[in-house]
Specification:
Organism: Aquisalinus luteolus
Shape: globular
Number of domains: 1
Helix content: under 10%
Protein name: Glutaminyl-peptide cyclotransferase
Strand content: over 45%
InterPro entries: QCT (IPR007788), Quino_amine_DH_bsu (IPR011044), WD40/YVTN_repeat-like_dom_sf (IPR015943)
CATH architecture: 7 Propeller
Largest sheet: 8 strands, mixed
Structural class: mainly beta
Number of strands: 22
Radius of gyration: 17 Å
C-alpha cells in the first residue's frame, strides 16, 4: 500500500483503512482485496467531535506538527516553501520561522532534547535546529525517503511512506530496529505524519481521512480514527493538494489537535469509539 510521494492525490474515506491489505503501489485507492473476508470488528473505529477551531496559515503545506511549551511547532513542505515554525495557537500567528534551503522538500518534525529535527523528503538529510534560536546546529543522513517523525522518549520513530516504522538512535540517527504496521496481518502503507500518544504511535495515512493508532512493539493497528468531513469544516473542497495531515498532542492538557495541508483551520477534537453493528 506504499506510494511514491507525499504530494498530490485525492483523499479516500477512512473506514476502509481498517480493512487495509496489500495493494498495487501504482494504485491511489485504499481498497481491500476481495479475498479478505475477515470482519474489521476487532479494530475499533473512532469518530470525532470538534472542541475548538483555531486559525491556521493557509499557505502552510503542513508536514509535521507538535505541541511544546505552550506553542505549536510546525514544518511545511515543497521546494521553496519549506519552513520550520513556532506558531501561536489562538491566533495562528507565526512567531518564529526558519526557511529551509530551496533545494530541500521539508517533511516531518520532532522535538528532542531542546532541539527540533526536521526531515526532508528525498534528500536523505535531516536538519537539527536549536529550539530557541532556530539556528541549524547539525545535520544527519539517512537512506530512503523521509516522511513523518516522532519520539517515544528514548528513540526517534520515522516513517518513509511505506508500511514500516523505523526506530532511530537520536544521537547518531542510525536505524536500531523497524516494524511493519499491519491491520489483521496485512500491511498498512502510506504512513505519514506521526505523533506519540500514551504509548502508541498515531499516524496520518496519506490520501485518506484516517489516523491509525499503532502498537509500537508489534506494529498492529489498534484503532482507526475517521476524520471524514473535517476538511469541509475547514472550508476546503475536494482537492489534490489539501489533504489531511498534522497531529499534535498536548499531554499536560489532554488536547488533540489536527489539521491539513493548506487548511485555513486547525481543530481541537475529542474522540468517541463508534458502536459496532449490533450494539
Amino acid at each position: 500500500m506504499a506510494l511514491a510521494a507525499c504530494g498530490n492525490a485525492d483523499q479516500t474515506d477512512a473506514a476502509p483503512v481498517a480493512e487495509t491489505a496489500a495493494q498495487d503501489p501504482a494504485s491511489q485507492q485504499a481498497t481491500p482485496p476481495a479475498s479478505d473476508a475477515a470482519s474489521p470488528a476487532d479494530i475499533p473505529l473512532y469518530d470525532y467531535t470538534i472542541v475548538n477551531t483555531y486559525p491556521h496559515d493557509q499557505g502552510a503545506f503542513t508536514q509535521g506538527l507538535l505541541w511544546k511549551d505552550g506553542h505549536l511547532f510546525e514544518s511545511t513542505g515543497r521546494n521553496g516553501e519549506s519552513t520550520v515554525r513556532k506558531v501561536d495557537l489562538e491566533t495562528g500567528e507565526v512567531l518564529q520561522r526558519h526557511d529551509v534551503p530551496y533545494e530541500y522538500f521539508g517533511e516531518g518534525l520532532v522535538d528532542w532534547n531542546g532541539q527540533l529535527i526536521n526531515l526532508t523528503w528525498r534528500s536523505g538529510k535531516a536538519f537539527v535546529l536549536d529550539q530557541e534560536s532556530f539556528e541549524v546546529e547539525k545535520e544527519f543522513s539517512y537512506t530512503g525517503e523521509g516522511w513523518g517523525i516522532t519520539s517515544n522518549g528514548e528513540q526517534l520513530i520515522m516513517s518513509d511512506g511505506s508500511d514500516r516504522l523505523r526506530f532511530l538512535d537520536p544521537e547518531t540517527f542510525e536505524e536500531v530496529s523497524s516494524v511493519s504496521v499491519t491491520a489483521r496481518g496485512q500491511p498498512v502503507g502510506r504512513l505519514n505524519e506521526l505523533e506519540w500518544i500514551d504509548g502508541e504511535v498515531w499516524a496520518n495515512v496519506w490520501l485518506s481521512n484516517a489516523i491509525v493508532r499503532i502498537a509500537p512493539a508489534t506494529g498492529k493497528v489498534t484503532g482507526v480514527i475517521d476524520l471524514t468531513g473535517l476538511s469541509q469544516m475547514a472550508g476546503i473542497g475536494p482537492s489534490r493538494d489539501f489533504v489531511l495531515n498534522g497531529i499534535a498532542w498536548d499531554k499536560d492538557g489532554g488536547r488533540l489537535f489536527v489539521t491539513g495541508k493548506y487548511w485555513p483551520a486547525l481543530f481541537e477534537i475529542e474522540l468517541k469509539e463508534r458502536p459496532q453493528q449490533g450494539q
